Amino acid sequence: MGKATLHALGTGDGWAGDSRGRSAFVYGLGGRTLLVDCGEPVSSRLRAAGIAPDDLDGILLTHLHCDHIGGFFMLMQGFWLENRTRDLTVHMPAEGLEPVRRMLDAAFIFRELMPGELDFAPITASEPLQIGPVKITPHPTTHLETLREHFQEKYPQGFEAFSFIFETEDTRIAHSGDIGGAADLEPLLDQPLDLFCCELAHVEPAELFDLLAGKPIGHVCFTHLSRQYRENLGVLKAQAAEALGEMGVTFLEDDQLVEC
Prior knowledge:
This protein is of the alpha/beta class. The protein is built from eight helices and 14 strands. The chain has helices at residues 42-48, 66-69, 72-81, 97-106, 145-151, 205-212, 227-230, 233-244; strands at 4-10, 24-29, 32-36, 58-60, 88-93, 118-123, 129-131, 134-140, 162-167, 172-175, 195-199, 219-223, 248-251, 256-259.
């Protein structure tokens, strides 16, 4: 067993209808089990992976698009019915705190039904949070900036989206979340990485591969591939191999486990 693991529960893009699950990833490092995003059908994928409700030490939501949180409410209902006993904090963009609480109440998943405490905490850019020995630093992305430009006057909310750096004494992992462009990745790459889980739906592959080439990354895992890229996966793999050389590269499939 390596220093850390990444279990890809769902690797699909934002479009409904193909066989892939939506974004959900379980990281195991520092003796902690962390769930990043809750795209559907996260509940059944966790069960299939042998991860019980009480196994999770924390949940982080990169942003509030439904392909990243669409399975969250069923997950919470499962925690209630399966009698999760441990306290749990869900970290998410601040704009989601009250709507998510209200939706849980509207769905009759009241806090009083949970044997353990269920808490929600806002993510603040560049402000680290700690889950056991794991330090997690959020970095903002511009994924929602176009929507902000068009709709913030009518819908005055934060339009926040985040990537994460996970660090223990001997491991450094980056998770890109959804991005607005390759420049969003630069804060994640300023130090060596053991593992980098990077989305490939909102950036041109050639630009992304050029950015990553020569960087001190032990292993890069591409996920969230748009359909146009997935349909030409063989060509894409060849381009990545040529650009990235000896770097370990995986194009993630659902239920795939990667160690670093």
